[in-house]
Amino acid sequence: MPRQIPYIIANEGCERFSFYGMRNILTPFLLSTLLLFIPIGDRTTEAKHVFHTFVIGVYFFPLLGGWIADRFWGKYKTVFWFSLIYVAGHACLAIFEHNLQGFYLGLALIAFGSGGIKPLVVSFVGDQFDQTNKNRAKLVFDAFYWIINFGSFFASLLMPLFLRDYGPAVAFGIPGILMAIATLVFWLGRGKYVHVPPAAPNPDSFSSVARTALLARASSPSWHGLSRPGLVVAGFGALAAVVSLCMTPAWGFVIAACTALVLVLAFGGIGVSMQLERARGKHTDEAVEGVRSVLRILIVFALTTPFWSLFDQKASTWIVQANTMDSPLLSIFGWNFTLLPAQMQAVNPILVMLLIPFNNVALFPIMRALGITPTPLRRMGLGIALSASAWVVIGMIQLWIDGGDKVSILWQLLPYALLTLGEVLVSATGLEFAYSQAPASMKGIILSFWYLAVTVGNLWVLIVNAGVKNDVVGGWIAGSGLSPIAFQMFLFAAFAALVAALFALYAMRYKMVDNYRTA
Fold first, then answer.
1. Helix (H) or strand (E) holding 103
2. Keywords in UniProt for this one (predicted)?
3. Residue from 41, 174, 168 nearest 102 by CA
4. Residues forming beta bridges with residue 408, ordered by sequence position
5. What is the CA radius of gyration of the chain?
6. For residue 317, what pLDDT is reported?
7. CA dist 413 to 54, 138, 158, 363, Å?
8. Of 3, 44, 234, 237, which one is least surrounded by beta carbons within 10 A?
9. Is residue 361 packed enough to be buried (19+ CB in 10 Å), middle (13-18) or exposed (0-12)?
10. Which of 439, 442, 448 is nearest to 513 (CA)?
11. Hey, how many other C-beta atoms are within 10 angstroms of the C-beta on 441?
């Protein structure tokens, strides 16, 4: 096992405590303190909007961090300097607890700093391995994900108590201290890491090959007389993106900009795939096949976006539901307590810490014994389906609440268990899948696209959230006999179930590759 791994793992544990410590109290803080000037009927919707806009930022900025690391600074320097911005953001949250603009500045700095380092730490772990010890990589990726949830568990358990008993300055200040410690630990290991240098300008890079493919003219026109049909498709996507941006006054900037990005990526990718063979000759066969591999990976990433739209709402929609539920008096070793709504999120990381070793020691060996190989794509597809079932259960609980029944908060344990099992199968596997499938020169960027899937998942939440406020949609929901929140729960469940089926179909056609570096 590489001796530098403990520094990266310890850094990740402290950083995840800091991130989830502030993230998991964000919705309760917005509802109880910062957004009190908003009418109570609109406060929940606005709190969800702020929360998911923040998450969108966190998972958008990996594009920037990955690009800077791959082309200029390298992974280590990028992680270190973005971590300092991250610490500054935490300081703003603690200082500007009652100042809307100052608090939002802190959220922006955390989104920028956290997002910038997010793909790099995972990729940095992979850089410490080569063909001689790659068999250890899965164990370390699992340990990496385990420590994330170790930090998240204690943050989820303790920070709601600090928010209630000591106020937001202390509750947001403690995660800032942990982030400062994380940065220090990472710096202490600087002499032990394997540093893969930034890639020099590459004439056969993904963007170069894609540009050549789009601009190359066919020797003879095809596809209804067009010599460059892929360029036409990509241009249509660009035009649709401009139209989306023009809708900013009606949709809001975040929805319009994210929709524009999705359109550019989707139609641009289709256009490149249509004309990719035209890049041969001007670029090496290896480069062309590398681009083809990336495009196939991006389809997998796109199909995981519904999972993220469901998963991230446990810190918004599920907390809103928990606020309306009864919390019974519990007793452990003579200590009597009642769970706060935000503390229910601690169920997720503690289950992850149990399920990861359970899967490796029991579930996957049993599957192999039965002749079922638990490939990464099979695991991910099953995880999406389990997340859909979790939302069916949470929707049923909401129907009990809407019917006037007193429902214990402990009923949320079942959907948390289903969602967590889905998370282990999708998220932990996705980190391993993304690194192993990415060509060597594009590992930072491909991991950035993996995190961009989370941005798109939260975009779906904002779109549904905005749609429910529409009078026509609201009237249609009222006619269904469901409350708006119950309707959204079943809608998201159906969305994920449909995509799980599509994922299974695509997984049967996907061919795995091995892109670990040589010794």
1. helix 100-127
2. Membrane, Peptide transport, Protein transport, Transmembrane, Transmembrane helix, Transport
3. 168
4. 326
5. 23
6. 94
7. 26, 29, 19, 21
8. 3
9. exposed
10. 439
11. 17
